[in-house]
Amino acid sequence: LMITNMDWTSVMYSATDATTAPGTALVSRTQPLVDGNMEGSLYFLVFHIVVTIFLQQLVFAVAIDAARMSNGSGILTESQRVWRATSRQITATSKQFFAPRAVDPKNWRSPLYFLSIHAVFEAVLTGVVIVNVAVLAAEYYGQNSTRDQLGFNLSIVFLSVYIAEMIVRILGQGLKVYLSSPANMFDLFVNTLSLVETAILTDSKVGLQVFRALKAVRILRLLRHAKRLQLLLTTVYESLAFLLSTSFILLSLMMVYSVLGSNYFGPVKEGQLNGVAISFRGFFPAMATLYSTMVQGSWVSLLPDLSVKYPSCTPDSMLPPNLSGDAVGDCGWDTAWIFFLTYGIIIRYFIIPLFVAMPVNVFFDHCDSSKGLLTEDVSFAFQSAWESVDRTRKGWIQTWHIPAIVSSVCSNSSFQLRQTYDTSRSL
To answer: Would the pTM of this model clear 0.70, i.e. be above it?
Structure first.
């Protein structure tokens, strides 16, 4: 019970209620004394800390290490990690190069493109989002009509800025490139919801509070401009396939235990909890019961109902002879605790570590990607220099163009490799 971390505090509180007063002989037993043996709780606390903080973390660590070994990242040296990250940077630069972009100085979209990728443009938009969030946080239920109208007017101003940003990005980068970015797709979704909200709230006949709540979605715009949060969201997104597979394993386990539980505990008579709050009388009630015990961890209170014995129930041997051969008694099972104990151990020490291991592994891979030797300035300068020679974007150039490209990159950017290697080592 302590290992599964399920309702262990009830056991601790029961143990601290001493059955005898201090110094009293065991032969003269008294009623339990509430908190009469508080020092006994130290045993449970120490055991819980060791299991939860050390043993369980070791299980997670083993699962994470196995995940990293499975894709080879766990055996890479630091130099190999840097090389892999640099290779990924080169691949990303190649994909950006062959994507349709407005970089021709003679193209009317070129100024809009460079505006959409400029750092100042991003900083201004981040400031607008922060101010918008502050305005939303200042609203409260029951505010006067003047304050409400002011907030509505400001929301239109913010929405106008967001739509202008979207237009600049679409015109500068092209619709295909714009829609290829998950962040841009998210902005498009939020802007559409905001337009629907504004259109409905403008009509005084349809002032629905549910559409006012849509303004809270704008707070999520901060995710676009927070690089660290984007890293976490990217980690979750790339881990979805593995998480779905693990969820299928969890669902399969719950189905197996639901079938077992409905067959063994379905006929048991109703008790204080069994058949009232939770039940094993059927596949779906059993699934709901197992889910409740998984998230709440309170299966100990079920044991008295599921292990009920004669004379509180009717065993098979005492059934009337005129009943059909399929009839069974309604007594419980002494081994009910084995059912829940094995279920809890499998969930806590096998299934949950799988849910943790893959996202952590993906997160480590993204952290390794930041160790590449090339900076973003160098990558962009190289793209521009290459495209000045390869205007048709064939993907190859003549060898005599290489010195000009290297010279252009060195002169038009802060051509610096990350200080990963010692200066005496050749790259």
So the answer is: no
